[in-house]
Write a structure and sequence with these properties.
Elements (H helix, E strand, L loop, with lengths): L1 H7 L8 E6 L4 E6 L13 E2 L9 E4 L15 E2 L14 E4 L4 H12 L5 E4 L5
Parallel strand pairs: 3-7, 4-5, 4-6, 6-7
Antiparallel strand pairs: 1-2
């Protein structure tokens, strides 16, 4: 229904809205965010495996027990607390199972001044 509203140009437009439905109580809710301001600073991008290049420094945050094979053959296997001293001048691409650890680690690296950081989204291939 929302897609049809957009395609047909019907008002009110669902763009900038989140609609929720509780099927247990048959109630609807949601909120509008079309006037929300963008967060300050740059966002940490999620990248697909196919966009990795030979110049990227891939850091595998998963342990051997979690991922016996690293995401790439040349990936460094480090824990989230072992990221100090990474070389600069290369994009650092962090990888974990869900992206949560990688995103947290990327934010910490960005706070330390390493700006060229990305998270590898394994679900993007």
């Amino acid at each position: 229904h929302m897609a049809l509203q957009i395609l047909l140009g019907l008002e009110p437009s669902p763009l900038g809205r989140l609609v929720s439905v509780d099927l247990r109580t048959l109630s609807f809710g949601g909120f509008v965010f079309h006037d929300a301001v963008e967060p300050e600073g740059t966002a940490i991008p999620f990248v697909a495996r196919g966009s990795l290049g030979p110049e990227d420094l891939v850091v595998e945050l998963r342990g051997v027990d979690e991922a016996p094979e690293p995401v790439t053959a040349d990936a460094l296997r480090l824990g989230p607390d072992e990221l100090d001293g990474l070389p600069s001048g290369r994009r650092v691409v962090l990888c974990c199972a869900s992206g949560v650890r990688a995103h947290r680690a990327a934010r910490r690296l960005a706070q330390r001044g390493i700006r060229d950081v990305a998270v590898l989204a394994l679900s993007l291939g």
